[in-house]
Amino acid sequence: MSQLIVKGGSRLRGEASIQGAKNSILPILAAALLTGDQVELRGCPRLRDVDASIHILRDLGCGTRWEGENTLLVDARSLDGCAVSDTLMREMRSSAMFLGAILARCGRAELSYPGGCELGPRPIDLHLSGLRDLGAEIDDAGGVLHCRARRLQGCEIVLSLPSVGATENLMLAACGARGVTSIANAAREPEIVDLQNFLNACGARVSGAGTSTVSVEGGRPLHGCTYTVMPDRIVAATYLCAAASAGGGIYLRGAKEEHLSTVTAVLREAGCSILSDRGGIACTRERGLSAVRPVRTAPYPGFPTDAQAILMAALLKSRGATVFEENMFASRYRHVDELTRMGADIRVSGRAAVVSGVKSLRGAPVRCTDLRGGAALCVAALAAEGETRISEIGHIDRGYEDIARDLRALGAEIGRNPE
Ligand code: UD1
Questions:
Q1: Are 46 and 229 within 8 A, CB to CB?
Q2: Ligand 1 centroid vs 306 CA: distance in angstroms?
Q3: Which helix (H) or strand (E) is 129 found in, with range?
């Protein structure tokens, strides 16, 4: 199995471009099904999770083709299936996203239950109850979801919590429903705005994304389009934290601070200097970092749970102690044991973790426990003395096109070893 090998200690200096957003492209790939047409997706990141979505699209009868490095063509005219196999569902937990789109397009859908993941239980009860509100009959016996809807009917849906996946799934289903659907207590993530923009570029009438109420005027025929996916804010947060960890100065082309303001606010508080312009974000860290006020993860526009491990890794050598509170997922401190192997001082108690800054970190053999936990190990390794060998990097490949390429462009000593 391949490993990442990081030689810590050098300051970063350089520029990198930010890839397209994983959490945008995944729902957009499901949304492509709704068009029954061809779509051209630009800025599509080359990721394991994108490959998993492509497998699902192909299994459903759609054509897909890469053109150049980051343009993906999807032809949904030839869709001839409505079932996603258990093997394909297991490749990616967020494949539940296909439920709303397949149901809207075919009137029925069959998917295996996505189950838990490395972050803890991953229920989809809100997805299912919203689809039932729209008129779907769902039988979820035996781990397989059998969904039917001769006709979906627009309605008012109130989410009991602002789930990103449920908001997106219901937006897709509502495009195929007659009449108007309003989704209250919707998630407000920028990726939901991106999905709205894609759907509207295909002829849909969706409004309100980015606020707590999303409205969809359903039943309109959708057509193909050419669309450019937004930049990945969590990848940008990772490289900002890399600069905070290693010191030096970097520029991230394409990164948008408006999507990242809670992360940049914390990094400024810790002692980084961050300047944005229309083309990207510059981050400089000259002196040592200080601890910051408690960091509590919350739905957007709160601090993103996906940046919790990464920021924690950047603060391991800060002066003082920082409290983290993880409010989104049950098992999101699995990276802590690995960081401790590098000399970090972190105490976990339930939802809270306290990071007390240490004088130095040392390279060690460590293992990725999940996608962002793996990226956090890279961030910490940049500030460690000596060599860190990071194994099980398949987790990182789910969300980063090539983290070693990007960090090398930023001046880090990092390579990928095939053995
Ligand atoms: C998305 C992101 C993921 C991010 C997360 C939270 C994608 C592909 N993934 O995941 O990177 O970490 O948002 O920002 O976009 N919940 C329920 N019932 C449901 C749905 C969710 O109880 O039916 C709970 C979850 O267990 C979790 C919370 O709601 O505790 C938030 O989950 P959700 O916003 O749905 O996250 P995802 O869409 O799975």
A1: no
A2: 11
A3: helix 125-133
Closest ligand 1 atom number to CA of residue 94? 8
Atom of ligand 1 nearest to the CA of 187: 34
- How confident is the model over 24-51, as pLDDT tens digits? 999 999 999 999 999 999 999 999 999 9
Residue 123: CB atoms within 10 A of its CB come to: 14
Cα 136 from Cα 413, distance rounded (Å): 53
164 Cα–ligand 1 center, Å: 6
Strand partners, 146: 110, 139
- 287 and 241 within one domain: yes
The token duo for 172 is 């897709």
Of ligand 1's atoms, which has the minimum distance to the CA of residue 49?
Answer: 8
Residues within a 6 A CB radius of ligand 1: 23, 26, 94, 122-127, 161, 163-166, 187, 305-306, 328-329
Confidence of residue 247 (pLDDT cuts 50, 70, 90): very high
Residues involved in catalysis? 117
Q: Give yes or no for residue 308 having a pLDDT over 90.
A: yes
Question: pLDDT per residue over 208-234, tens digit each?
Answer: 999 999 999 999 999 999 999 999 999
- The CA 290 to ligand 1 mean position distance, Å, reads 31
Q: Which of 184, 200, 228 is the last residue of a domain?
A: 228
Give dist(CA 185, CA 269) in Å, integer.
Answer: 31
Which residue among 113, 163, 229 has the greatest number of ligand 1 atoms within 8 angstroms of its CB, and so is best to mutate?
Answer: 163
Q: What is the pTM assigned to this prediction?
A: 0.97
* Shared domain check, 285 and 141: no
User: Using one digit for the tens of pLDDT, what is the confidence trace for 142-181?
Assistant: 788 999 998 999 999 999 999 999 999 999 999 999 999 9
Q: Where are the beta strands (DSSP E) in 233-314?
A: 248-253, 273-277, 280-285, 295-296
Residue where one domain finishes, among candidates 168, 200, 228: 228
Tell me how far apart the alpha carbons of residues 259 and 4 are, in angstroms, rounded to a whole number: 29
Residue 335, helix vs strand vs coil: coil
Total tally of structural domains belonging to the chain: 2
